[in-house]
Amino acid sequence: MAKINTAYIGLGSNLGNRGKYIKSAVDALTQNKNIKLINTSDIIETESLGQKNQPKFLNAVAKIETALPPEKLHKEMLNIENSLQRKRTKKWAPRTIDLDLLLFGDKIINTPDLKVPHPQMHLRSFVLETLCRLDKNLQHPTLKESVSVLAERLNGCDFKLNPDTPQLISVAGVIGVGKTTLTKKIAQSLNCRKILEPYAKNPFLPKVYAGQVELSLNAQLFFLIHRAEQLNPTALSPPQIAVSDYIFQKELIYAEKTLDEQQLELYRKVYPCFARKVTKPTLVIYLKDSPRNCLGRIHKRNRPYEQKIKLDFLKSLDDQYEKLFSIWKTSPLLTLTFPQLNAEERNGCKQLLNCVKHYILI
Fold first, then answer.
1. Per-residue model confidence (pLDDT) at position 333
2. Which of 86, 90, 167, 283 could be 359's S-S partner, Cβ–Cβ 3.0 to 4.6 Å?
3. Is 312 a catalytic residue?
4. Catalytic hit among 27, 42, 135, 245
5. Is 279 helix (H, G, I), strand (E, B) or coil?
6. Neighbours of 78 (CB within 10 A)
7. Cα 327 from Cα 284, distance rounded (Å)
8. Does any domain span residue 231?
9. Hey, how many other C-beta atoms are within 10 angstroms of the C-beta on 325?
């Protein structure tokens, strides 16, 4: 007797009577004697990820049980698409119906005709959110995370990997959390370029930490200009992979904490000119630990100009990072607390690196 497997099929339509096409596709699945429909998610409406000015999509997910092998199930899905006037022109074009085999049990399939899990389902909120409505604890076979965890990383957004843009991984977090250490490990493991903050090159920073607050604007402008140069798209040619130990958006956080009212007013006028020219990260890794633990590392590494940093300053930075990432929509956001990071270090960061590779083009 053939084994019964549980599979999840994504359904989408953005041409004609979208709801009717999705219902017809579900009906066609139920009419197949080798397929048993278990449940369908609610239908949600989303913007197209493809060509501009397309109609919006209706999307849903169907949970089925089947004795068919995945290749034969995929063929049946193609037949349903063809029966519903699916026109195969070019990628990302509008379509009457789209059926994607998202998951097939815990199988991992990588053939020219079929890839399971769906290679970019973890970048699509409309997929993950509908899967969550069926089973929020459902595990992704290669990422080894639940669909609810994967959905949280996207904050309601949908992303696609673009081979024509640089692949930038940015590691973020407060001073002393371990950004540079992790950045170096990722760069070494992926054999890619590392971009480090130019602390040692900033001639104003030690003086600011020593109390010469009148030089705060000089220090912040030095960082602003230097980081904009580091992250300029012309310096990060696609499809090159790079990993930085900061995100550009931290500039405003530090400016608001270190500049007086007049300095900050001037800085805010200059900042957008540089921000428009930097590469957006493909993935952000947000490291979290208590400000007290971070202060302990700062004292341990004993950089002279950092020794006057106070706990209250780190707490205020921590609050600002939390606010920034609570509304983050620029890229997927992978959050690691320090106990998780310790576990990753003991395991050679294998799980973390496996995760990172799913969010960039290798």
1. 98
2. 283
3. no
4. 245
5. coil
6. 13
7. 13
8. yes
9. 18
pTM over 0.90: yes
- For residue 309, give both structure tokens: 């940093």
242 domain-assigned = yes
192 and 120 together in one domain: no
Domain at 216, CATH number: 3.40.50.300
Q: Measured between alpha carbons, how far is 74 from 88 in angstroms, rounded to an integer?
A: 16
Select from 11, 16, 13 the least CA-distant residue to 40: 11
Question: What's the pLDDT band for 340 if we cut at 50, 70, 90?
Answer: low
Angle at 214 between CA 195 and CA 225, to 5 degrees: 25
What angle, 0 to 180 degrees and rounded to 10, lies between the N-to-C axes of helices 261-275 and 216-230?
10
Q: Please give the DSSP secondary-structure letter assigned to residue 340.
A: H
> Do 216 and 182 share a domain, yes or no?
yes
**Are 210 and 138 part of one and the same domain?**
no
Reference 259, options 322, 298, 208, 206; nearest CA is: 208
pLDDT of 213 reads 87
On the question of pLDDT at 345 being above 80, the answer is no
Residues 172 and 147 occupy one common structural domain:
no
Query: Can you say whether residue 135 is alpha, beta or left, with left for phi > 0 and alpha for psi between -120 and 50 degrees?
Result: beta
Mean pLDDT computed over every residue of the chain: 92
Task: Compute the distance between CA of residue 177 and CA of residue 341 in angstroms, rounded to an integer.
Answer: 10
Tell me which of 345 and 34 has the higher pLDDT: 34
Whether residue 284 sits in one domain with residue 182: yes
Judgement on whether residues 201 and 105 belong to the same structural domain of the protein: no
**In terms of domains, do 128 and 234 share one?**
no
Model confidence at 342, in pLDDT bands (50, 70, 90)? low
Range(s) of the domain holding residue 104: 5-152
Nearest-Å Rg of the Cα atoms of the chain is 24
Residue 164 has pLDDT above 80, yes or no: yes
Last residue of a domain, one of 121, 152, 183: 152
Q: Is there a single domain that holds both residue 59 and residue 119? A: yes
In a domain, residue 89? The reply is yes
pLDDT on residue 346: 53
Q: What is the mean pLDDT of residues 277-296?
A: 95
For residue 265, the model assigns a pLDDT of 96
Both tokens of 38, joined, read: 């278990």
Give, in order, the Cα–Cα distances in Å from 269 to each of 83, 204, 306, 357.
57, 21, 28, 37
The answer to whether 134 and 41 have CB atoms below 8 angstroms apart is yes
